[in-house]
Structure formats: structure tokens, C-alpha cells
Specification:
The longest helix has 14 residues. By secondary structure, the protein is of the alpha/beta class. It starts with a strand and ends with a helix. Helix 2 crosses helix 3. It is globular, with a radius of gyration of 17 Å. Helix 3 links the parallel strand 5 and strand 6. It has an eight-stranded mixed sheet with strand order 1-2-4-3-5-6-12-13, sandwiched between helices. The chain has a single domain, classed as Rossmann fold (3-Layer(aba) Sandwich), CATH 3.40.50.1820.
Length: 260
């Protein structure tokens, strides 16, 4: 079920997949939204209640004035306060969501009982991945028809199709993210985050795409070695682990959660 809350006059929308199980906060990656965790919620069944926000500037959540890591983490703290959480809970994040998850664990260890990082790196020098980001910069945010917007997305159109939304005034369709917000988010994630990754002490799992260009194997190995209590699962995918091997992803998450 979808719910909305307000933070400083800005709407943050989230999905609560319900059920009697323990809560799991699930953070989507860039160019994405919380609805992409519907399959995970189904796979985990009644054991876990998946809560998946549309992070600022994504999905049904309003755009924000800035896209700093502190801003993303502040939204998550506000959401957990809104939900009335008194006990820490596991937090899962893919890519952008992975960075936000381990930053939340470092900033507020009282809120996070376990961490699942899905191909979220701790190093991303400025200028990495120019082809992807150049393409994002050229995307239109809106188009008069859904078909025109899909065509403008090129190869990404198939993956984005389910998230396209009609404009409130009926004048056209929009993406589930703004390209300029994505570029601002990418800039805020540049640099090294080793001190943040190693700051938390809760149990952690790194789920890694073995062919990922975003997280090279050497960096993934170092992340496991340098953070005590971190286990590892490698899957034969590129960066987009939850989409390229959903069963392997679901199985790895379920197995880790059973150890808590």
C-alpha cells in the first residue's frame, strides 16, 4: 500500500508491502523507485514486511532542493520516525540505495540492526562511467505522449516503461526521476567512502555482481576484508543484480535475514 509523508513541505512517498513479519527497509537504486521491490516482498513472504520508499526525486516523491548524502539520510531518519520505529531494523540498498544504507548505518547505528549492500561501491572517482551519465543528461524529463518518451529513452526505455507517469495536468508523461537530479546525486556520491563503510558494526552482507563495472572485484574483496562481520555473495551479473538475477538476489537476501 502506498503512503505519503511530508518533510519540510516536500512529499516523501513510500510503499509498505504489509504482512505480519519483521520490517525491512529497502532502498532502490538510481533511475528507479520503491515499487521495484515488489518481487522481493513476495519472495520473503510473511517473514518480512518490506517498506520501500521512493527516495527524494524518484517515483512519487517530490524533487528536492539538493541531493547530498546528508539529505538522503535525513529523509530515511524522518521516515523511520514517522513509522514509529523504536527498535533497529535491517536496511537493504541497491547501488545508490546501498550508499545511502551504509551512510545511515554509520550516522544512526541505533536505527540499523543489519546491512545489505547490493553492489554499492565505496569508491567512485569523478568522471567514471561517462557514457551512462552523458546519456542521462540528454534524456527529456517529459514528452507529450508515453510513446515519445519511451522512444527518447532509447535502450533504457524497456526498463523504465513501468515507471513512466502521466503529468497531473494531462499535458504529457514524465520519467520517474529527473535527469538533472540524477546527475546531482552522482556528483554527491563521488570520492571515497571507506571511513563510512567501516564505521558501522552491525552484521552486513555484500551482494556483488561478478561482472559489475560499478564495483570491481578487487574493491568488493577489500570491502569484505576491511569491515568486520561482513559476508559476501557474488552473482553472475553486471551491476544490475536485482534485475539480472532476481532469484539469486532474493535467495541471498532471505538466507542472510535468516541468520539475524
Amino acid at each position: 500500500m502506498r503512503h505519503d509523508m511530508t518533510i519540510d513541505g516536500r512529499v516523501l512517498s513510500y510503499l509498505d508491502f504489509g504482512g505480519p513479519g519483521r520490517p525491512l527497509l529497502a532502498l532502490h537504486g538510481g533511475l528507479s523507485e520503491g515499487a521495484h521491490y515488489a518481487g522481493l516482498a513476495t519472495a520473503l513472504g510473511d517473514d518480512w514486511r518490506v517498506i520501500a520508499p521512493d527516495q527524494r526525486g524518484h517515483g512519487d516523491s517530490d524533487r528536492a532542493a539538493e541531493y547530498s548524502r546528508e539529505g538522503y539520510v535525513g529523509d530515511l531518519v524522518a521516515l523511520l520516525d514517522h513509522l514509529g520505529r523504536q527498535d533497529p531494523l535491517p536496511v537493504l540498498g541497491f547501488s545508490l540505495g546501498g550508499l545511502n544504507a551504509y551512510h545511515l548505518a554509520a550516522a544512526r547505528p541505533d536505527l540499523v540492526s543489519a546491512l545489505i549492500n547490493v553492489d554499492g561501491p565505496v569508491e567512485r572517482p569523478s568522471g567514471k562511467g561517462p557514457n551512462l551519465f552523458d546519456f542521462v543528461a540528454r534524456l527529456p524529463y517529459t514528452a507529450p505522449t508515453r510513446e515519445e518518451l519511451l522512444a527518447a529513452c532509447g535502450p533504457m526505455g524497456e526498463g523504465l516503461a513501468a515507471g513512466l507517469r502521466p503529468l497531473p495536468d494531462g499535458s504529457g508523461w514524465r520519467l520517474p526521476f529527473h535527469p538533472q537530479d540524477t546527475l546531482a546525486t552522482v556528483d554527491s556520491g563521488s570520492g571515497e567512502h571507506w571511513d563510512v563503510w567501516t564505521a558501522s558494526r552491525c552484521p552486513a552482507l555484500l551482494i556483488h555482481g561478478l561482472r559489475s563495472q560499478a564495483l570491481p572485484q578487487r574493491q568488493a574483496d577489500a570491502m569484505v576484508a576491511r569491515r568486520p562481520g561482513t559476508s559476501y555473495v557474488g552473482l553472475d551479473t553486471e551491476h544490475y543484480v536485482p534485475f539480472q538475477d532476481p532469484k539469486g538476489f532474493h535467495d541471498a537476501v532471505a538466507a542472510f535475514l535468516q541468520t539475524l
